[in-house]
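re: the backbone from monday

yeah here it is again, tokenized this time
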């Protein structure tokens, strides 16, 4: 194991993190779509030469934990040279779901010291130097509001991935500094909003350029060997902090299961099951190998389903990464080293490791949330004083597409809608926030109404049954979950409306015998004020003047041995 001064380690931790954060700021500042500019549905990260994550921005957990698999896919599929940028979104090749497009850029230091000119970036490597390997990688991932497919917004109730949108294996989008316009044209000719997609892709390129420049500056200031040593030290430090925490977790096997309401095709609940096995010493294994001491086994989860809630392996890994990262202090760097002591078993062909041609759009947004719920439920048996009740457990995905009468052009709107967090040991839950695998914002009303032919008729914190009838835990026996929100949108033109949501049939679980959270609701309100209740996963054609109303779930309550309410 590398030895590095702790002060230097802290300095480099913040330097790497600031690069990822600045990449995100560049992306948001230049993006075209409200989904990226306003909601911040993007993520950026920095990787070492082996594709191991050494820094992540404070962005989307569902993106960040899975992004290393996209970087690895790009490394394996392509020869990346100076000035190159790879693009991909294939869920079965390191991606998550099709709307999440990832750009991966190599960073060369040894062969191109200091700041490189654009001409140098485009130049072919000198003779005898064709085996150049990048010293670092930077990557940006963003959710594009439409990537084609059968439904506007590319998040519909599909039954196979071919219906979900344009599927991109690892390809060059930039080569030797030159944009590959044939590749770009192929993509833009298969989406509903090509100008917006091109603008957002250029913003991702700008983010990668910013990251590469900052890595060059870092190495120019401190030297490549010192920066590489610090990166390796951060990986080891993260691993050691995780092992130190796991050493305090009681040994044993902890089981839990939970269900998604359905897959959108049948009414059958979809089971996700985990066994968390904590065994042996958390110390480093002999001969320099990184020995796992915790196994997360999802055997027993249901087989992959017909609907779009299948999760690929990268999503399951990402959810596991998120949960175990949350168990540590905030100042522990979020690097690949965190998962060295953790082994994830996700059997192929199950809903947590779906195989082609499964539809997977909802696996990224809905199944990832339920995987988190199941992991936390199991961990509550081992460390009950550290684990909250279930949060809303759904991203309440809403997509609307049609022709904007103001411009005569197609539009595609996408948003995830916040809910309530689960109550925590010693504290009530928080209302009206995005939870767990999503770390985005809601689109501001002003931005939404400016960009789309909509009118927001209600945007409020949801009133729950507990408001009228005080629950037992409000008297001092525990803590209440946070409340969801109401988002009601009136259409000013005919449009296709798609909802991909869960926690409609059963609310988020409470802990310690406390009540569950309130399930969500979805409804259409007609022009005559009549109301039609909808299932959680559906696509409908709405007429001008009709409204779609989302009431998101609240969090579960918590009762246990924590401090009592005063």
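seq for it, each position gets an aa:
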């Amino acid at each position: 194991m590398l030895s590095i001064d702790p002060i230097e380690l802290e300095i480099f931790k913040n330097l790497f993190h600031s690069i990822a954060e600045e990449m995100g700021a560049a992306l948001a500042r230049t993006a075209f779509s409200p989904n990226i500019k306003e909601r911040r549905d993007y993520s950026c990260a920095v990787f070492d030469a082996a594709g191991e994550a050494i820094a992540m921005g404070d962005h989307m957990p569902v993106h960040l934990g899975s992004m290393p698999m996209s970087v690895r896919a790009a490394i394996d599929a392509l020869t990346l040279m100076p000035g190159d940028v790879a693009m991909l979104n294939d869920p079965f090749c390191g991606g998550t779901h099709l709307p999440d497009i990832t750009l991966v850029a190599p960073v060369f230091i040894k062969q191109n010291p200091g700041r490189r000119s654009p001409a140098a970036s485009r130049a072919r490597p000198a003779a005898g130097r064709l085996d150049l390997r990048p010293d670092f990688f930077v990557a940006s991932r963003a959710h594009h509001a439409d990537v084609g497919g059968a439904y506007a917004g590319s998040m519909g109730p599909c039954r196979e991935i071919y219906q979900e949108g344009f599927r991109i294996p690892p390809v060059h989008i930039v080569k030797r500094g030159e944009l590959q316009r044939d590749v770009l044209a192929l993509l833009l000719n298969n989406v509903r909003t090509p100008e917006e997609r091109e603008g957002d892709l250029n913003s991702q390129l700008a983010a990668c350029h910013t990251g590469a420049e900052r890595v060059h500056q870092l190495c120019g200031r401190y030297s490549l060997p010192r920066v590489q040593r610090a990166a390796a030290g951060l990986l080891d430090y993260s691993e050691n902090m995780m092992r130190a925490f796991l050493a305090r977790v009681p040994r044993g096997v902890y089981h839990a299961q939970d269900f998604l309401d359905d897959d959108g095709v049948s009414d059958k609940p979809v089971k996700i099951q985990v066994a968390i096995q904590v065994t042996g010493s958390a110390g480093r294994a002999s001969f320099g190998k990184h020995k796992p001491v915790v196994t997360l086994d999802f055997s027993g989860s249901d087989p992959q389903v017909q609907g779009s809630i299948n999760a690929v392996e990268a999503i399951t890994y990402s959810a596991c990464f998120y949960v175990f990262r949350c168990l540590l202090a905030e100042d522990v760097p979020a690097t690949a080293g965190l998962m060295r002591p953790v082994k994830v078993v996700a059997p192929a062909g199950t809903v947590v490791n779906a195989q082609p041609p499964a539809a997977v759009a909802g696996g990224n947004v809905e199944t990832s949330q339920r995987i988190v719920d199941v992991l936390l439920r199991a961990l509550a048996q081992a460390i009950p004083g550290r684990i909250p009740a279930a949060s809303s457990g759904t991203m309440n995905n809403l997509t609307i597409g049609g022709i904007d009468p103001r411009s005569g052009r197609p539009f595609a709107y996408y948003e995830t809608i916040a809910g309530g967090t689960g109550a925590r040991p010693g504290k009530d839950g928080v209302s009206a926030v995005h939870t767990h695998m999503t770390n985005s914002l809601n689109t501001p009303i002003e931005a939404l109404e400016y960009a789309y032919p909509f009118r927001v008729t209600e945007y409020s914190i949801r009133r729950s049954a507990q408001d009228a009838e005080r629950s037992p835990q409000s008297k001092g026996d525990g803590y209440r979950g946070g409340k969801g929100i109401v988002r009601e949108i009136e259409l000013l033109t005919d449009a296709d409306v798609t909802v991909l949501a869960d926690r409609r049939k059963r609310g988020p679980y409470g802990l310690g015998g406390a009540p569950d959270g309130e399930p969500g609701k979805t409804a259409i309100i007609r022009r005559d004020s009549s109301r039609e209740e909808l299932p959680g996963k559906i696509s409908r054609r709405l007429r001008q003047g009709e409204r779609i109303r989302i009431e998101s779930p609240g969090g579960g309550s918590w009762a246990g041995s924590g401090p009592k309410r005063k």
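The chain is about 30% helix and 20% strand. The CA atoms of residues 511 and 558 lie 5 Å apart.
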